[in-house]
Design brief:
Domain ABC transporter: 14-245
Strand content: 25-35%
Distance between the termini: 50 Å
Number of strands: 14
Number of helices: 10
Helix content: 25-40%
Organism: Thermomonas brevis
Number of domains: 2
Keywords: ATP-binding, Nucleotide-binding, Transport
Strand order of the largest sheet: 6-7-8-3-9-10
Order of helices and strands: EEEHEEHEHHHEHEHEEHEEEHEH
Structural class: alpha/beta
Radius of gyration: 23 Å
GO molecular function, one term: ATP hydrolysis activity
CATH superfamily of the largest domain: P-loop containing nucleotide triphosphate hydrolases
CATH architecture of the largest domain: 3-Layer(aba) Sandwich
Protein name: ABC transporter ATP-binding protein
CATH class of the largest domain: Alpha Beta
Length: 318
């Protein structure tokens, strides 16, 4: 066998076919999952706890043995040449798994050493990834002194040391506050813009909607929905808007047939309406009631609605 199988630049970043996993206790965690993630894609993997997300990621990153099916990373089969496939992947697990008594610079350089990257090259690369993660000023501080958000960014920086073509993130923003989370979103968008494909598992649905172009929803070991984020959201027949109004909202709101209009506070109106409805009808009703709209924005709960709907289907059919 050749020392390493070459990655196919035209192949998808990840190609999973009929993936099954049955644990020793008889639990069937994956029931024939098939999934493609394109090169350069930003792909969300959503699902409730115990749905099979972590098992799927564990198999792709060679931490869990599969019971059946195939996995290819840029055309490299993980059974045929595991080490070549793993060199294409960077993994950011949910738990912190670095030595808290090491410095970020050493953590990155030592990680690169496992992959045979020479020390001089690793030092230059560590500076680059730590600067990208806004951690260069902490490069020589003890890792345990970093904040939770910084530790998360260090995990991402470490994974980027091998210049992976596919970055897999398992709940990367779990337990960090919204401000830190948004900072991490920017980091991930920059990595993706540089050409790295990203797979993200998350509980935060607004995170998936903000970052990802495509998604797959997994429930009870089966993919229940997949496709482009935009077209999946378009399947929802209800659209939500928030309107900021000039002055105060009137005591009696206009009735708009087929739509639900509520005041969330003295200056904000919340509207749910069928997607097919013309917004001009809404503005005409506002006009007649003397309501002047200063600004409007879309509500971002549509993905949540889709998620609930997709995973509730089985229950409804049972």
């Amino acid at each position: 066998m050749s020392s390493h199988t070459a990655a196919d630049p035209a192949a998808p970043a990840l190609r999973v076919r009929d993936l099954c996993k049955i644990y020793d206790n008889g639990v069937e965690a994956l029931k024939g999952v098939s999934l493609d993630v394109g090169a350069g894609d930003f792909h969300a993997l959503l699902g409730p706890n115990g749905a099979g997300k972590s098992t799927l990621i564990g198999i792709v990153s060679s931490l869990v043995n599969k019971s059946g099916g195939t996995v290819e990373v840029f055309g490299v089969d993980i059974d045929a040449d595991r080490s070549a496939a793993m060199r294409l992947i960077g993994l950011v697990p949910q738990e912190f798994n670095f030595n808290m008594f090491e410095k970020p610079l050493d953590i990155c350089v030592n990680y690169a050493g496992f992959y045979g990257i020479p020390r001089e090259q690793a030092l230059a690369r560590a500076e680059e990834v730590l600067k990208d993660a806004h951690l260069w000023d902490k490069a020589d501080k003890m890792s345990r002194t970093l904040s939770g958000g910084m530790k998360r960014r260090l995990m991402i920086a470490r994974a980027m040391m091998t210049r992976p073509r596919l970055l897999i993130l398992d709940e990367p923003t779990a337990g960090v506050d919204i401000e830190i989370r948004r900072g991490m979103w920017k980091t991930l968008k920059d990595i993706n813009a540089g050409g790295t494909a990203i797979i993200l598992t998350t509980h935060y649905l607004e995170e998936a909607e903000s970052l990802c172009r495509n998604l797959a929803i997994i429930d009870h070991g089966t993919i229940v929905e997949r496709g482009p984020m935009k077209s999946l959201l378009a399947k929802l027949d209800v659209e939500g808007f928030l309107f900021d109004v000039e002055g105060e909202v009137p005591a009696v709101l206009p009735q708009i047939e087929g739509a639900t209009l509520l005041a969330t506070d003295a200056h904000t109106l919340d509207l749910d309406m069928p997607r097919a409805m013309d917004l001009n009808r809404v503005f005409a009703a506002f006009d007649a009631a003397g309501i002047r709209v200063r600004s409007m924005r879309t509500k971002s709960n549509r993905l949540e609605e889709l998620f609930v709907r997709m995973t509730a289907r089985e229950g409804a059919q049972a």
